[in-house]
Amino acid sequence: MEKQILELAKRLIAVNSTKDEPNGLKEVLAIAKKDLTGFSVKEYESNGVPSLIFYNSKSLPKKFKLILDAHLDVVPGKPGQYSPKVVGDKLYGRGAYDMKAAAAAEILLFKEIAAKINYSLGLQLVTDEEIGGFNGAKYQAKNGVDAECMAVGECSSDFTLSISSKGVIWMAITFRGTASHAAYLWEGKNAVYEMNRFLSKLWKNYPIPKQKVWETTVNVSMVNTTNTTGNKVPGDARVQLDIRYIPGENEKTIKKIKSMLPKIAKVEILEYEPALNTPEDNTYVQRFLDIARKTLGNKIAIVGKNGASDLRHYPKTAGLEFGPIGMGPHTDNEWVSIKSLDVYYQILKTFLVSLNR
Fold this sequence. Notes:
Layout: H1 2-13, H2 22-35, E1 40-46, E2 49-55, E3 64-71, E4 85-87, E5 90-92, H3 96-113, E6 121-126, H4 137-142, E7 147-152, E8 161-165, E9 167-176, E10 180-181, H5 191-205, E11 217-224, E12 232-233, E13 236-245, H6 250-259, E14 266-273, E15 276-277, H7 283-296, E16 302-305, E17 318-321, E18 326-327, E19 335-337, H8 338-354
Parallel strand pairs: 3-6, 3-7, 7-17, 8-16
Antiparallel strand pairs: 1-2, 2-6, 4-5, 5-19, 8-15, 9-13, 9-14, 10-12, 11-13, 18-19
Helix pairs in contact: 1-3, 3-8, 7-8
């Protein structure tokens, strides 16, 4: 199966499927549709973003037992990255690791096994995960697509399993002061200074980690003022925060940040995405862990992910993030281990077969 996965992965990588290439988004989905000719499929489109879900029944189930999920969009790369290259065991290219090779494995697995199992299985293919998944996975969820469990082939260094990931809050804070001429700054109140006092408190409470940590982090992503004059005391300032909170710390974090603010500050929540937190004793998790350990011949580490995936759009669904081995997502040297693709495929296949009633 390794050869088939590699060839399909190459075909997918060769397509520039970034958010700015709508034809590319349609083309990668067309490749998948051609490979899965004969299977039931429902097509979705929201704000020009296409997505698909394949299923192994005549009509779309009200609730799948399990959905395999993959995104076929990528972040922009250099022209050469859309020409897949094999060096030893490594397949290089934009999306090789994140996550077109895993998507190829999922497509071929669905093709092989969908008609051989006796429960509802879906294959969800989306094209906007890299920009939030709001018109793909979330749109499908809003339109009735649901499952007991979802398995996502996201980046999985050394075959680790993620069943929890941080939630996301985008918060904008506006500070109001009093504008005045810079020569008479005592007549005004500098909103930038007010913002700076807050940022000093923020950095003290949420220092920048020196390495990967499983704790709530806050990033200052944008700072601006409407003032465009050099000799003026700015009467307003705005800062935008990207908060990545661990499960259970969402309201606590918002309350803590608000406690650092002066009364003149106005808080606006721009995005509020849930954290993923599937219990380790979940039946699907335990079944998957048992199969993965037997296949790999060793223990499989359970990790929390700092980044978010489309699983956050299904917060009540048991979530499994597990993919092949690779390195460098979003970088110029992104690669996936070719040998790991077949191992990944076999683990997923054994897991799906084990779920037969």
